[in-house]
# Entry
Amino acid sequence: MRVMGVDPGLTRCGLSVIEGGTGRKVIALDVDVVRTPADMDLAERLLLIADAAEYWMDTHKPTVVAVERVFAQNNVRTAMGTAQAGGVIALGAARRGIPVAFHTPSQVKSAVTGNGTADKNQVTAMVTRILGLQTKPTPADAADALALAICHCWRAPMMERMAKAEAAAAEQKKRYDAKLKQIRKEAAVAKKG
# Structure
């Protein structure tokens, strides 16, 4: 599985690509941070981010794109910019038929460090260790993008098993409801007869 991890942001957008093998083995292929000037028009900033992310998708051919889910922040303006950056990247992936998975910051931290409230230094240290890197990825947006990709590699098999189990349970319920309906229908006919 080749995962493109994205830590979305307007000022700094972390992009990474890792290859996941069997078990928990992951290899970093590339990581970078796209920067846009704060004084630039919003639409132009989003275009720069989208262009960079789409170039990565076309170059690295990921099988899935993992994006950090924005769910709450104290600064609404920052949250909006982060969501917009994530949105243009998800759109680029969708146009290429690449599935997109969203993970919350606490899911990522928990997957990588074992602690859903870990700080940026802990995440960076664990990413460095997990990937066997010689130096810590900087800035933190690069480490976060790698952490998102790692999180997806490790969570995807579990998420797939859960989806299959839910689908099987839904199918079983459908068959049960149909059988129950048939029994009730037969009982109603027998009662009339």
In short: The chain has one domain: 2-161. Residues 2-161 form a domain with the Nucleotidyltransferase; domain 5 fold (CATH 3.30.420.10).
